[in-house]
Amino acid sequence: MKSRKITLLVLTVIFLAAAAFLSWNVYKNGNEFKKQRTEQARVLDSKQRLTDWKEWLSDKFDLGNLFDRSNVEKGAEAEGEARVFYTEAVFHAWLLAGISVLYFLITLFIYRGTTFLCRYLSFSLIIVSFVFLAVGVSVPMMEIGFFSDMLNIPIEFDVPYIDKHVDLSTKFQGRMYFLYHNKSILDLIYVLFSNNNLLVGTAILLFSLIMPILKLGLSLYQFLAPKDKSKFIGFVVQNLGKWSMADVFVVAIFLGYFSFQNMSTGVESETYPLVGLWFFVSFVIISIISSMLLKHSVKKQKDTIIIN
Q1: Fewer CB atoms inside 10 A, N or C side of the chain?
Q2: Residue 119 pairs with which residues in a beta bridge?
Q3: What is the pTM assigned to this prediction?
Q4: What is the number of other CB atoms lying within 10 angstroms of the CB of residue 124?
Q5: Higher pLDDT, 87 or 145
Q6: Lowest mean pLDDT: which of 42-46, 95-99, 193-197, 291-295?
Q7: Model confidence at 96: pLDDT above 90
Q8: For the chain, first and last CA: distance in Å?
């Protein structure tokens, strides 16, 4: 049994080192993606384009040889770079998910056929949960945009006395953004507190950070100190799991409210889930499974003590 523990300890250290490297790459590329997409939205922002006199003339004249790249070209460049960064983030995310599954399966192989199987499987899932939670709250989880493609502004009027119709209508090429947000859970919390939305901000902070960390920390303590019979720790670990989906619902409600309050007629909208959301949801599911396994192992240990 001692050799198994040493093997698992070494395996855990290797996993955490690899997970830290991959998590950092997911975080770095995910936030670079956010930066480039935000820059794209800034360049193509409606106020930016509508107040740029070159935009009004570009539909009538070819200004490519007179000025630097147009806003549309700058936006396309930022979008291209954003796609590269997001592809890298997804690639490292899949690697992280892959080594997490491998870590779990090796733990299963090491303790197969033993009475400690559920206990150590729970331990491996707790470690994975910590990693997934860190990525889930720090990497962009969703982007929301309101935009118009090929916006046409009709400006037509008749000149009195000379009976002439003048058409100064302008069609803005490409996309024009009216609103764009690309945020992680930590970004949401910061924005909410900055805007004095204390109720929602506190709810997301509580359910997305404080309670999960408390639950995982106490679960890890319960694993490392199985002889501690504290009823409080057991109560907290088992009952916090009932609130595991509350954070997801709070974030969903906020995003839904945030989206609809900014909608306006004639403007298209897009909402895309990003890497951070999948890691956060995976964390919720994995933490629930780890709690079930830990509860089963504790119950089995009590039954064994009673029988003996």
Answers
A1: C
A2: none
A3: 0.82
A4: 25
A5: 87
A6: 291-295
A7: yes
A8: 20
Who has greater pLDDT, 8 or 294? 8
Name the 3-class secondary structure at 256: helix
**What are 196-213's pLDDT values in tens digits?**
888 878 878 888 888 888
Print burial letters for 162-198: b (CB count within 10 Å at least 16), e (below 16). eeeeeeeebebbbbbbbbbbbbbbbbbbeebeeeebe
Pick 74 or 13 by higher pLDDT.
13
Distance CA 179, CA 47 (A): 10
Q: Could you tell me which of 46, 32, 34, 37 has the C-alpha nearest to residue 75? A: 37
Report how far residue 269's alpha carbon sits from residue 134's, in angstroms, rounded to the nearest whole number.
29
Q: Residue 191's beta-bridge partner residues?
A: none
Q: What would the pLDDT profile of 27-75 be if each residue is shown by its tens digit?
A: 999 999 999 999 999 988 888 777 776 766 665 555 555 455 677 888 8
Which residue's structure tokens are 């690639």? 91
Decide if 53 contacts 26 (C-beta within 8 A): no
Dihedral sign computed on CA atoms, order 253, 256, 261, 262: positive
Shortest CA distance to 37 belongs to which of 137, 147, 134, 185?
A: 147
**Ramachandran bin of 263, using left for φ above 0, alpha for ψ from -120 to 50, beta for the remaining angles:** beta
Where are the strands (E) in 109-223, listed by range? 142-149, 152-153, 156-159, 164-167, 170-171, 175-183
**Contact (CB, 8 A) for 43 and 71:** yes
| Tokens encoding 229 | 């019979």
Q: 178 is written with which tokens? A: 């009216």
Q: Residue 145 and residue 267: Cα distance in Å, rounded?
A: 10
